[in-house]
Specification:
Blueprint (H helix, E strand, L loop, with lengths): L1 H9 L2 E2 L1 H11 L3 H10 L3 E2 L4 H6 L9 H8 L15 H7 L7
Parallel strand pairs: 1-2
């Protein structure tokens, strides 16, 4: 199961919608979130007008829980940063991290 999860997580792509959700949830600029994701090796979804207009919501959710849910799409990348301070959260975000 951890192998499958690792493979899945390595293929996750993050859209501008997810970057904006994370910036709102974490109260950081979109630029800071994008820079951090790129540094972590996250793949960014290529922009195309078809994708953006037909798939993504036109407005950001006002509900904070929805912002966090969007951010959890790439939350596994954050697991290694909190492994020492919050090991249970780290394993929850990425159980396969324990085997790395």
């Amino acid at each position: 199961a951890c192998t499958i999860q690792s493979r899945h997580q390595s293929r996750v792509m993050v859209s501008n919608y997810h970057i904006k959700s994370a910036s709102l949830a974490l109260e950081l600029s979109e630029e800071v979130v994008l820079e951090a994701l790129l540094e972590l090796g996250c793949q960014i979804w290529p922009e195309s007008s078809d994708y953006n207009t037909t798939t993504l919501p036109r407005t950001m959710p006002e509900n904070r829980e929805m912002l966090w849910a969007s951010m959890l799409q790439f939350g596994h990348l954050l697991g290694s940063f909190i492994a020492i301070s919050h090991p249970m959260w780290s394993l929850w975000l990425s159980p396969s991290f324990e085997q790395l």
